[in-house]
Amino acid sequence: MVCKAQVCLVQFNMPYEANHKLWTGNKFPLYVSTRVKDLYNFIEEHYHMQPDSFRLLLYTSSCTMIDLSKMKDKTMEQIGVDFSIDPSSPDMKNTLFVVDPTEPFVIDLAPSRKNMGYNLPTFNVTGAPSLHPRWTEENIVREDVREDVRDGREEVNFRSCIKTETSYVGLVNQAMTCYLNSLLQALYMTPEFRNALYNWEYIDSLEKDEALSIPYQLQKLFLNLQTSTRSAVETTSLTKSFGWDSTEAWQQHDIQELCRVMFDALEQKFKNTEQADLINRLYEGKMTDYVKCLECGTEKSREDTFLDIPLPVRPFGSNVAYNSVEEAIRAFVQYETLEGANQYHCEKCNKKCDAHKGLKFTKFPYLLTLHLKRFDFDYKTFHRIKLNDKVTFPYVLNLNSFISSTTSQESPGGEEDIGLGIKCDDSSTTDSGIDMSNGPSTSSCTTHNHENEKNRNACMLGKGPYTYELFSIMIHSGSASGGHYYAYIKDFRTQEWLCFNDQSVTQITDDDIHKTYGGGPSRVYYSGAYSSSTNAYMLMYRQIDSARNALPMQTQDFPQHIQELLKKMKESEDNDRKNREKMSIPRLKVYCHHPVEGKLMNVKLFVMPDITWTEVTEKAYKKFGLENVVSLDQCRLVSYEHNTDSIERSYDDREHESVENIWRISRRFDLLLEIRRKDQKFETYLPGGVATKVFVIDVARDEVIDGPIDIRGLLSQSVKEYKQTVGKIINMDPKQMKVILQKFTETRPVENDNSDLQTEEFYNTYKVFISTMYDIDNSKPFRESAVYRIIENFRHVISLHVQLPDTSKETLEELNIPLLDDKYEEKEKSVTSGPLKFVNESDWDVNLKCNETLKSCARINEDTTIRNISPQLGEAEEWNTPEQSNSEDSSLSDSDKTLVGDAPEGTDIEPQSWDSDYFPTRFAKRNYKAQFSTSKRFEIDWDIDDDSDYYFRATPYTDSIQQNLLKVLVDKRMRLSTLKKDLQSYVGVSVEYFKVFRISNSGESECNCLMEQLSSYEDGERLNVKLGRALRNGEFKVKLYQLLIDSTEPYKFLCEWIVSRDVTVGHAKKEILAEIKRKYDIDIPYEKCRLRKKYFKTASKVFLNEQKFEDFQFHSQFGMIVQELPDKEIVTDTNQIVLFVKRWLPAKLQLGQFQEIVMDNRTVEELKKKLSSISDIPEEHIDIAKGKGSFPCDNSVLRIQNEHDWNEHHDSFEDGAVFLYRDNREKPKQLNADEVMEIAFKENSRLTPLSTTSSYSPRRERALKIYLDTE
């Protein structure tokens, strides 16, 4: 049974005060089995609306309005939606109205279009209600709507809410195939070409494979364009018949170049058929290339054919353009005088004579194509440029004056080929892309005046057959370096002009056409090469001939073989639709505040629709690598809004439901893997929630004593209910609670307990302050109160989470870093309100990410959990010596946190001197293990210019994986240098021995500008403090990686290592091997260990034992690779290179394991010889291809056979390069559709990385070519 579906549009009619975004025009499929409840769930979750805050009305394609509010358990079929309407019918689609449940909603369904005397397509709405309809029960269920209409209240024009549809089908842009789409739409809208193509019949015995038959695939595409109910169809089957693979979609080409190549291919395919002369019959013209002697009058000529006429926009060497196409054509046939040194040797005169050389048209084609050569070369700047000069073109073009009245003359000696051919533009600018900003204006789809028709009739009265009407304009929008193609095309049946812009098809006006003349404003960037404009590039005209002019064939007129093909296509489409619904794989984007990485990460999961929510949670849990970090029961998936970093809703008690049930309508959504502490319980999140950040104020102490505390409320919740929620968390009596809301520029008390949070404008970006009083003096107005003053001063305060390093005695000694001396520590204690104490907890596991970053905030690509160890210790020296890195990195070994003055082990120290009885219990629940530290000076005066006196408060805490962190409240006007001074007491070492790094989704970036204020820091941002060992002169810091050659993540970061210039590689290797054996239990024998340079993601040059490090050039991100060899080292010379090779087995769709080949001469012959020795394949049967992308050059097995350049000429080989090789006698495995889908799913899961970082290696541009199956 075919799964019936219709399109449903969403239309919002909500009051402005509701603060809802109007997503009018969105579409989704409506199935027979879709429930009304599903529609409500879709609106709630997709548009973030609260339940019961809206009502749904469905206007169906059968012109019936249905109130859905009382029938949520029924399906679309049960409520009367008619799915029997022909999908190809132009009838109005279903529209879902989202309206206010408290307000009446009245609509006017009367036709509102004016009859403008133009044949625009109309909506055939059978039985549409009259202007003032009286609804019956079958039209609408609610009685109040009928009363509203009878009362004559203001009505809503329903027709204006529905986007006018043109009933034309667009083409999907595969990537950069807009040039292809424009030409295909022009050919499709050419009746003579379409009809002739339909008359061609595919015969199995004459074709090798229907998938490779260009006319057959073009037939199917045209049928889809004519009969499909979709808004756009794909061109992948056609491009596959061209012999193109998926990478061709990313190649940029020119529309005129494609036209010539496609016509050549069609001519080849039409040979020995009735359509053998189709291209010549429709598009071929003739011209004479002549030379005429001015002394004897003898004319030598040769006849040539053409498919298009290339017209220069400007004369050569001139800055003034031709005004019109007619002027350009006249210049095209203007003769050139051969004189002086360029005289013509006349055989009849037997001497050099002056002569005229030029072109004459002898026959124009039925379909005339004019190519405006807007791309030129500027010989002054040596750049290709685009010419935006204005060149007009007529709707009707009379070319009779260009045909010579006499036939071509020849000399008595007969015809002679004088070698003068037509100059064709073979240097068309390759161009495609995304610049669509200057596209057509389609806002006013008015009818054209009748000027064109009058011109057409007038020209038809003229003498001669060569009168043409314009029907297609190919437009280029962009510059000489890139742009976008689309087309304006006239429908001969309706006489209306349309814009075909990939998937979009819209009506246009005369003004839109006039804008394509050019001459308008251009956007100039650096030079003419980047001057962007929108103008006509290629024009198509059809000869006005009543005997030949045709209209496109209609469905009922299709030949029998086309009717059978159409039936076959419909059956195939229905089967594909059913299979897609069964095998539809939802793509989930899952975020996670990763406890180890310390940043928000995301992964993409492809799951089957019937998988349970519990199974999806487990997949995400494993994908983030949390197995040894937190337990699975501490994690759950919730709906998440990434832009505001807020949870939208949870799915409590639905863990055993399938993904399909939970997300029945939407197929793309974002989730968050929420992680709770062991002593916490998951909170229930209902739709319509708001995440508030709460701060607690102690008026008696004149300061904020806690916050931010994330507390979730509901927009529909009353202020009283919100207070009760807050009171439970902070242990405060709601009756004594004062709530103050701080907006961007306003601070006001919230005093109406019965008001809801939405009315009070509680939003995610606002802060909420809680106190038991406004001021000790109750008589003071709010704006003069202590609370108001504290909050206003707190406006500049942000919260930061600071991750602390391990500063155990062993670690500091190993890094040659001294502890803070006693005097310095005492000095710091004198300005604090209490002792700085940490609990010595044995379970503090600091599992840090150990990556160094550049000053330029370079992206971190390698993940690791290994610590930085360096055995060389020395006296402290200045960090940034000229030779060393600009950034330091030290991720240290796990140990107990120990500082001078530690409290007894296991002591829970609670905040002191709190006046309220509510606070101690509240903080005991949060397991705070240390006292607050706040400078007393901050409590006295907030407005001090001295940078050292800005607000600072730090509270130690542990996270879900027992990492020790600080929650810091700090004035963002403070400088980084001051922040470091305030942090040094918590770090335990002087500011000279640690650095601060900002953590973001793209990695870590060092905060190296000490005079920079914290104004750019975000509230809630996470910082990482790292220790660093001082370097001696002649020492360098390098990063060590272990090469895991068969892993998808081949480079495992080990640590940073310090090397000296005068140390040999062999000596350093021994020390490195001993250290990684001791610390990481990596045991590699010395004779089987190789050190080599890491160059980006390539294992590059091999370091020989006798070399010294002074032989190498060091830089700030120098990396070195530790590689374990299967046997002893065989590289003995610095001129040798090492390549990685893998064997490709096409018959099994498998790749072998990596092998190494050491090359001396760096030639293809040497490589094939060595490959033959390890594979037993004769050298003459070995094909080689260079791996794509970065090491390990992993690629889908479905793409290796056809998307690698086998036997490409390789003139250079580099260390660490990857090459694939195969036996060219081996035949590829043939797969059916199910096998392809299964392998694609597995490969997609295997190749999808945790990180969103992608490595793109652009392939070289190829010439446009269509490959025939005979090649």
TrEMBL record:
Signal peptide: none annotated. Residues 429-450, 870-914 are annotated as: Disordered. Residues 438-447 have a biased composition (Polar residues). GO terms for biological process: protein deubiquitination; proteolysis. The keyword Aminoacyl-tRNA synthetase does not apply. GO terms for cellular component: cytosol; nucleus. Keywords: Hydrolase, Protease, Thiol protease, Ubl conjugation pathway. It comes from the Eukaryota. Its EC number is 3.4.19.12. It is an enzyme of class 3 (hydrolase). Residues 169-544 form the USP domain. Coiled coil: none annotated. The keyword Protease applies. GO terms for molecular function: cysteine-type deubiquitinase activity. It catalyses: Thiol-dependent hydrolysis of ester, thioester, amide, peptide and isopeptide bonds formed by the C-terminal Gly of ubiquitin (a 76-residue protein attached to proteins as an intracellular targeting signal). Belongs to the peptidase C19 family. This is Ubiquitin carboxyl-terminal hydrolase 47. It comes from Cyphomyrmex costatus.
